[in-house]
Amino acid sequence: MNARTRQYLFGFIFFAVGIYQLTRHDALEASLYMAAGTAFVFNSLAMEPRLLAYKKGLVIVTWALIIGTGLLLLWLVQFKYL
Q1: Which of 4, 55, 56, 68 has the fewest CB atoms within 10 Å distance of its CB?
Q2: Where are the transmembrane segments (predicted)?
């Protein structure tokens, strides 16, 4: 399994866990997992050779999603578990 396929797989797993959290009526954790899964997918899309013309935009979106996911994680830890 190459690195690109693995990133798509992790993105799918995180997104599936996010949908599971939605069925448990926990929207905050669902948003965390879905944002992380979307970041994995966009990071993998940025490595695709066919999307080389859009690489800069995809990397910007990837970093925005990573930073947003980190902030969501800190907020979740602070207000839900502490």
Answers
A1: 56
A2: 7-24, 30-46, 58-77
| Coil vs helix vs strand at 65 | helix
pLDDT single digits (tens) 60-80: 999 999 999 999 999 999 987
> For residues 26 and 59, is the Cβ–Cβ distance under 8 A?
no
Distance CA 67, CA 73 (A): 10
Cβ–Cβ under 8 Å, residues 37 and 14: yes
Contact partners, residue 79, CB within 8 Å, separation at least 6: none
**C-beta pairs of 60-63 under 8 Å, 24+ apart in sequence:** none
HSE-CB for 79 with a 13 A CA cutoff: 8
CB 21 within 8 A of CB 30: yes
